[in-house]
Design goal:
8-stranded antiparallel beta sheet; 1 helix; 42% strand; Beta-galactosidase, Chain A, domain 5; globular; binds 6-O-phosphono-beta-D-tagatofuranose
């Protein structure tokens, strides 16, 4: 059986539900829904699930806490379709394609099968995974550090073989589980202006106050280098999202009507989730010269 280099993991799982121990303590490989290859982390620090499809982190639960990432009970697990929840990777564009509406929303990264490059368990007990994919002219690497904290790092390199600069947008479109969207608030964006996308596209001034939810909310905050905190009194926890290499932060809850319009989103699931997305979009899209690269990372902590 051929194995992944350097971590002894079989390249291909048979289409039956098998669980394969890997050479990395606390890291298993099995077949998830519809036989999709899934890495499962189970250590003293945390548990998690990562699909090669879209390099999609679908679950993360640090020890002594409830699940942090939200996943729809109606999610697709199919080639060519994104998983609904967890951390979708939006690349090389965000939202609808600017010229061709036939192209998938949020780009193709979350629809591709990524390759595992390395997997390891450090002396700190953190499981570190490196995945890679070629997306257009870009070599995209995704590093995950899975422990009591979650560290996600997306490195996008423009191939040196191209002859001109290229622009991209990127987002870690993170879905957080909440006790009740009506009870939570988000701080850290009080002083940032934002593009409001509902009810219509409108540039808005800073509100000067924490974000609370009472309707469909879809906002792209710009010039936001600082840490954002999700306060959830119902679960008696705070979730902080700190970042590097990202000046956009997207806040999204679909509310009632949009939830009903999405087949892979339960009609009543909107009350239990909110997206806080670490991004480089719009005014903060990235332009690279051939051979250049850009790193965007997020560190998520629960207290
Ligand atoms: O990040 C917010 C957003 O751009 C919303 O406009 C909504 O479309 C959401 O992403 C989900 O997009 P998706 O393509 O995953 O259904």
């Amino acid at each position: 059986m051929r194995v992944y280099p350097r971590c002894g993991i079989p390249l291909k799982l048979q289409r039956r539900s098998v669980v394969v121990k890997t050479s990395v303590p606390g890291l298993l490989l099995d077949s998830g829904p519809n036989g999709m290859s899934r890495f499962r982390v189970q250590t003293e620090l945390a548990s998690a699930e990562l699909f090669l499809h879209g390099a999609h982190l679908a679950a993360w639960q640090p020890a002594d806490h409830r699940p942090v990432l939200w996943l729809s009970g109606n999610s697709w697990f199919e080639a060519g379709k994104p998983i609904r929840g967890g951390v979708p990777i939006c690349f090389p564009w965000f939202g609808p394609h600017p010229q061709d509406s036939a192209l998938p929303a949020h780009g193709t990264a979350r629809l591709q099968e990524w390759q595992l490059q390395t997997a390891s368990s450090g002396p700190d007990g953190v499981i570190r995974l490196l995945l890679q994919s070629m997306i257009g002219s870009f070599i995209v690497r995704y590093e995950l550090g899975i422990g009591r904290e979650l560290h996600l790092q997306l490195t996008c390199e423009l191939s040196a073989t191209v002859t001109q600069a290229e622009r991209f947008e990127a987002a870690l479109h993170t879905y957080f589980a909440v006790s009740d969207i009506l009870a939570v608030q988000i701080t850290g964006l009080e002083n940032a202006g934002f593009m409001n996308k509902v009810p219509q596209l409108e540039r808005c001034e800073p509100t000067g106050e924490a974000i609370r939810f009472s309707e469909e909310t879809d906002r792209v905050y710009q010039n936001t280098p600082d840490t954002v905190v999700l306060h959830d009194p119902g679960l008696q926890r705070k979730i902080s999202v700190s970042k590097q290499g990202s000046l956009s932060t997207v806040i999204w809850n679909p509310w009632i009507d949009k939830s009903r319009r999405m087949p892979d989103f339960g009609d009543d699931e909107w009350t239990g989730m909110v997206c806080i997305e670490t991004a480089c979009v719009g005014d903060h899209a990235i332009v690279l010269q051939p051979g250049q690269s850009h790193q965007m990372s997020a560190t998520i902590c629960v207290s």
